[in-house]
């Protein structure tokens, strides 16, 4: 069976020097290390953070964000009109359906039907189309 080491065995007598690794930044910021350096007269670097110790609030932006939003978009979205709400209620009651039954047939939550009948919902054409189909009434031609 052949040996694994093919060459001649040599010994190297050169000295090996082990050195301490440099301390990490975390260790240098440790309060114990800083106090030790101050006691021994070591070098300690101090840096003032921006606005450190100043108990001031940040300056408000130059332009009010609310004014920008109002300038670009309408403040309030249109709600369901009274004609549409009354038409939904009337058709649902004529078909003897509850809000929950109507919601189930149009695959929406009962809260959605309730919001449409109370006039709190923002009109969605897809939901109105489903309600039209189930109740057999025209809703999208009415004023919103």
TrEMBL record:
<feature type="domain" description="HTH cro/C1-type">
    <location>
        <begin position="88"/>
        <end position="142"/>
    </location>
</feature>
<keyword id="KW-0238">DNA-binding</keyword>
<comment type="similarity">
    <text>Belongs to the MBF1 family.</text>
</comment>
<dbReference type="InterPro" id="IPR013729">
    <property type="entry name" value="MBF1_N"/>
</dbReference>
<keyword id="KW-0804">Transcription</keyword>
<dbReference type="GO" id="GO:0005730">
    <property type="term" value="C:nucleolus"/>
</dbReference>
<dbReference type="InterPro" id="IPR010982">
    <property type="entry name" value="Lambda_DNA-bd_dom_sf"/>
</dbReference>
<dbReference type="GO" id="GO:0003713">
    <property type="term" value="F:transcription coactivator activity"/>
</dbReference>
<dbReference type="GO" id="GO:0003677">
    <property type="term" value="F:DNA binding"/>
</dbReference>
<protein>
    <submittedName>
        <fullName>Multiprotein-bridging factor 1c</fullName>
    </submittedName>
</protein>
<dbReference type="InterPro" id="IPR001387">
    <property type="entry name" value="Cro/C1-type_HTH"/>
</dbReference>
<dbReference type="Pfam" id="PF08523">
    <property type="entry name" value="MBF1"/>
</dbReference>
<dbReference type="Pfam" id="PF01381">
    <property type="entry name" value="HTH_3"/>
</dbReference>
<keyword id="KW-0805">Transcription regulation</keyword>
């Amino acid at each position: 069976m052949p040996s694994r080491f093919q060459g001649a065995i040599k010994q190297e007598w050169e000295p090996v020097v082990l050195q301490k690794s440099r301390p990490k930044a975390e260790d240098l910021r440790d309060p114990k290390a800083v106090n030790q350096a101050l006691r021994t007269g070591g070098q300690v670097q101090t840096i003032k953070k921006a606005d450190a110790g100043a108990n001031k609030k940040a300056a408000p932006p130059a332009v009010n964000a609310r004014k920008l939003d109002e300038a670009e978009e309408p403040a309030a979205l249109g709600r369901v009109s009274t004609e549409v709400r009354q038409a939904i209620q009337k058709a649902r009651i004529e078909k003897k359906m509850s809000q929950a039954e109507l919601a189930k047939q149009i695959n929406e939550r009962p809260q959605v039907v309730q919001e449409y009948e109370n006039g709190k919902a923002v009109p969605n054409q897809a939901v109105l189309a489903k309600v039209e189909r189930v109740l057999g009434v025209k809703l999208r031609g009415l004023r919103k």
